[in-house]
Amino acid sequence: MTTYARPTWRVALRADLPASLVVFLVALPLCVGIAVASGVPAELGLVTGVVGGLLVGLMPGSSLQVSGPAAGMTVLVAEAVDRYGLTGLGTIVLVCGLLQIGLGLLRLGRWFRAISVAVVQGMLAGIGLLIVAGQLYVLAGATTPHSGPGKFTGLPGLVADVVTSPTAQVALTVGVATLGTMTQWDALRRRVPRLRMVPGALVAVVVAAALTALLDLPVQTIQVEGLLAAMQPSLGHWRDLTDLGVLATIATFTLVASAESLFSAAAVDRLHTGPRTDFDKELVAQGTGNTVCGLLGALPMTAVIVRSSANVQAGARTKASRVLHGLWLLLFVAAVPGLIGLIPLPALAAVLIHAGVKLMPVRALPALWREHRGEAVVLVVTAVAIGTTDMFTGVLVGLGLAVVKAAWETSHIRVTVHDDGSAPIDVTITGNATFLRLPTILTALNALPADRRVRLDLRGLRHVDHACRTALDQWVETHNTQAEVPVQVIAPAEAASSEAVVEGTAGGDGEAGRPTG
């Protein structure tokens, strides 16, 4: 963990200047690749990176977190562009930003942390699966299917095309070589400290672009439009807001972008000992950035853990590093935009496949299954639902399942029956008696002999809902009409509420009737 002491501006500059260059080198291929994978001009990804650095970087909230286009939004953006076009995307991002500002001003940012971690991990895993499946087509120079299920069902046909097409084989070779170069360079960086400033993704893309140009390989490269031609500034097409599909997309953008940013902030806070993130202010900052991106017709932004962790590990001390990284992006897109056009599409696909795999908790899932199976089920179901339907439906399924899981665990009940054959049958019920556990309670009670004395101990109940209370009352009444000795109900001396115990008959060491709450 990076230690923190408030630095002077000279000390901060010596640390933040090289850190900003590291973040710039990490952000450059990702900004371009995410834009291309989202179906928008590559320049728009750089615009979002510039706004994330120069604007959001100056705002309060988090001091070391870096914002820009995120791989986690790629699938959402691609679907939105496919349905509503670039103009519709601008309106969606603009309204999403305004909603984030409103949520932050209402001090609701901290409540995003109440979203189940399993749902967020499942959401990212589902996005990662779709990114990997979609970019496999680009890796082989093929056209990516639009639908999520189509990306998976079309893979056998893709394999057949690669086997029979020399052009596809060349593209696949470039992509696989890029992926291999990237992973090997990252491994080398861990052993050689001097190489840590140069990210593997940048090295791999530069090598792929150089070899493609020198060997004149038949591989498709990025189409460059120019910054001014790519941007479509607009104040928003407000008529689009009458479309329920647009409103659902805005809600999904807001939820995903906000959750990813705030979870990233929590992760970055664990990497250093500097000032902690103010989640409400960070949400306002992210909303301001998305509002500007929407006005410029650019991609949506979130805080990005890859760039943020690179910023911390490079020794950044203040906000200056993330602001400077935005400046370097601006200078690049203004001075040498033509270099983007040399990048082969399979190389960018390899970068995104690498990023998509990182979104999937492959290593953490087995441990999660052993320790918290319910959480693992929520994660997997959310990911599968996103892959087979769409992002909005998948997230709703995950949230619904998380609520059901929480309700089920909260309603934990234990029914213990002790019968030695001579004394009264002792039945002890502990936990929370809710309608979800009513079958368990009634199954145990109905199995008791009807002609035996029963002592029902309810002192361990923390809560009894109306359904369970009614059922227990009915069971006591039924048993009392059949047995010679009435049921002895032992209830707490003081109930937390009028629904904390059930009616019963006085017993030796219990309370009589219904205690007052």
Describe this entry's structure for a reader.
It is a single chain. The chain has helices at residues 9-37, 42-54, 74-105, 117-139, 148-153, 155-164, 166-191, 200-215, 227-230, 244-269, 279-296, 305-313, 320-335, 345-359, 364-371, 373-388, 391-410, 438-446, 466-482, and strands at 67-68, 302-303, 413-418, 425-433, 454-464, 488-490. With 517 residues, it is of the alpha/beta class. The strands form 2 sheets. A 4-stranded mixed β-sheet has the order 3-4-5-6, covered by helices on one side. The protein has a two-stranded antiparallel sheet with strand order 1-2. β5, α19 (466-482) and β6 form a beta-alpha-beta unit. It is elongated and about 100 Å long. It starts with 8 loop residues before the first helix and ends in a 27-residue tail after the last strand. The relative contact order is 0.16. Mean pLDDT is 83; it is low at 494-517.
